[in-house]
Amino acid sequence: MTTAALIEAAVRRDRLFATLGLAAVATLAWVWLLTAGRVADDDMPMPMFMAWTPGHAMMMLLMWWIMMAAMMLPAAAPILLLQAATQRRRQPAAWPYPALVLATAGYLGIWGLFSLAATAAQWALERTGLVDSMSMTAGDALAGALLLGAGFYQFTPLKQACLRHCRSPLAFVATHWRPGAMGALRMGVVHGAWCLGCCWLLMALLFVGGVMSPFWIGALALYVLLEKLGPHGDRLGRAAGLLLLAAGCLLLWQAA
Description:
Layout: H1 3-35, H2 54-90, H3 97-128, H4 140-153, H5 157-167, H6 169-176, H7 180-204, H8 206-209, H9 214-229, H10 233-255
Helix pairs in contact: 1-2, 2-3, 2-6, 2-7, 2-9, 3-7, 4-10, 5-7, 9-10
């Protein structure tokens, strides 16, 4: 077998292991989300009735971060897998898995910063009564404003620029490739930043349907996946923008 054939065989094996690893992380995140809202003894929701102590704030931060991992990793997987394959092709003797781990850590680190901001926003909104502390949902006025904001954002040049980076794994890796461990970490951070720019207002819509609602979390995660990886993601984005604008106007009319 030629050297090129050996490298391609290694790339295929790496892709399988890397896919299984990313799938395992996302699956564990979903399992945590679906089970963390219940106390084993009495089957009652746990964090949402507690006062905002430092421990509760840390629990909310962890919840947001795991939720972001569950929702965003599937859509980020193509770029992460391509980065690992490129690492193998450029450095056949080196294992690509440490670089994949660092790239994933950089990506999730950006969403960790978002989770910190989301936790602070949740605290402030609950404190002012704009978000119900039990259901973790916003009132009609705030929900309508969030829907309108997300709808308008779908049509902005910034949204489209960020979405193009997220939808083109080959172009992203070709443009942002850096060798070594720090290069992999940097690529993950850059990809996470573009992804955050694309989806941050969509994630804010969790306050509309319920921060811990499995259905709402799943619906948003599926939409993000289709918008980024679907063959007609641009059309879906425009249609979603119009629907969000209509829903926002309806809620604001009801709140008036």
